[in-house]
Amino acid sequence: MKIVMVGSGYVGLVSGACFADFGHEVVCVDKQDSKIAALKRGEIPIFEPGLSELVRSNAAAGRLTFTTDLAGPVSKADAVFIAVGTPSRRGDGFADLSYVYAASREIAQALDGYTVIVTKSTVPVGTGDEVERIVRELRPDAEFAVVSNPEFLREGAAIEDFKRPDRIVIGAEDERARALMAEVYRPLYLNSAPILNTSRRTAELTKYAANAFLATKITFINEMADLCEQVGANVQDVARGMGLDNRIGAKFLHAGPGYGGSCFPKDTLALIKTAQDYGTPARIVETVAAVNDQRKRAMGRKVVAACGGSVRGKTIAVLGLTFKPNTDDMRDAPSIAIVTALQDGGATVRAFDPEGMEQARATLPAGVVYCSDAYECVAGADAAVIVTEWNIFRALDLDRVRQAMAAPVLIDLRNVYRPEQVRAKGFTYLDVGRGSQP
Ligand code: NAD
């Protein structure tokens, strides 16, 4: 099948490369000349494990190409996926659909023969109807259908998630489009991935409901962690005790500094807005978003408390900046609020991340001292904070860390160490919800 991906970011590039790997003929389109030029040279503009090899092999096989010209490939396509960003709109937090609608208009102009337009971007319920209206208005003659196929991949494990998904959700309003989508995903039937055929609106809402539920799970265990700290209980054991119940499940029950990333913060806000607009407020999700927001700065205060109540004039080392390991994505990372809170308190922040330094420089406030590894980062620091649980921070040489620091204070916001292990090395150690007071 001939497939076009409009938008070659985390989702578009991974989906495009995986579809090519299934044997489809895929063209990845992007507006950013530099991104397409890099891809043509064989350079991958984002960090995602395994993506470089997958892109290279499929490009070499001639199944995966890159261009800034949308019209040519769209005119020949069976399916055109929209995988552009849907960030939070300034002011009200609703999804900014301007990129989706702009892409829809460009696609409309280029349609030639029956084409299925698929929204893979996360879009509020009803967006598919609007895309259909836009295309129909511009091209009353065109033969097309608009389908919703939300993407559930996780950055850091994106290829595995795309190729072995828990489910594929396809929201279509007509049988011809559904049959074409079945053909697009046919290679995955062999892996017996459940395909959920729904209405378009149902598919759109399913994505938001799933993300909001996961955000709720994280926020729930974070609140339990706070309670654990007060009552002297251990949140990891509480989570294990809860998670072994099949009705609950063990995943997304890791206490930490609050959720971040390119999806949960914006998708919870967009769902809240949609629910308000339809007169059925999503009170639980509203609370989750508010609690999570407060938590990120509270983590900054936790560091301040560990430093004796003030960080003025002190140096704090921040280990890990991306919103989770194995990605370079800094969008809405908890590190942003934590670094800001520390700087507001008068601290000098030194920082290191294995893959996120470039994006961090563009995202974090000015004044951060960027370091080339963990040991350089902690040099002379009055406290070190693990914000993102990259593997290399799980196995630090603690003797070397202590010797490099001005004061041996470690705040472990991801609970990667055992308290007794760190304390035995002479550290003052603080974690999240395990009753480890400094
Ligand atoms: P991204 O910002 O990494 O990529 C979007 C790309 O689209 C950019 O490269 C941009 O230049 C390009 N673009 C914008 N308008 C365009 C146009 N008219 N023509 C061609 N290219 C255009 O975003 P992303 O993280 O890939 O997310 C895309 C969508 O997928 C969002 O709706 C997001 O919520 C959703 N999603 C993301 C993830 C994730 O983990 N990142 C997971 C599931 C769903």
TrEMBL record:
The keyword Secreted does not apply. Gene3D superfamilies: Cytochrome c1, transmembrane anchor, C-terminal (1.20.5.100), NAD(P)-binding Rossmann-like Domain (3.40.50.720). The keyword Nucleotide-binding does not apply. GO terms for molecular function: oxidoreductase activity. It comes from the Bacteria. It is an enzyme of class 1 (oxidoreductase). Its EC number is 1.1.1.22. Residues 317-419 form the UDP-glucose/GDP-mannose dehydrogenase C-terminal domain. InterPro entries: 6-PGluconate_DH-like_C_sf, NAD(P)-bd_dom_sf, UDP-Glc/GDP-Man, UDP-Glc/GDP-Man_DH_C, UDP-Glc/GDP-Man_DH_C_sf, UDP-Glc/GDP-Man_DH_dimer, UDP-Glc/GDP-Man_DH_N, UDPglc_DH_bac. It catalyses: UDP-alpha-D-glucose + 2 NAD(+) + H2O = UDP-alpha-D-glucuronate + 2 NADH + 3 H(+). NCBIfam families: NDP-sugDHase (TIGR03026). This is UDP-glucose 6-dehydrogenase. It comes from Bosea minatitlanensis.
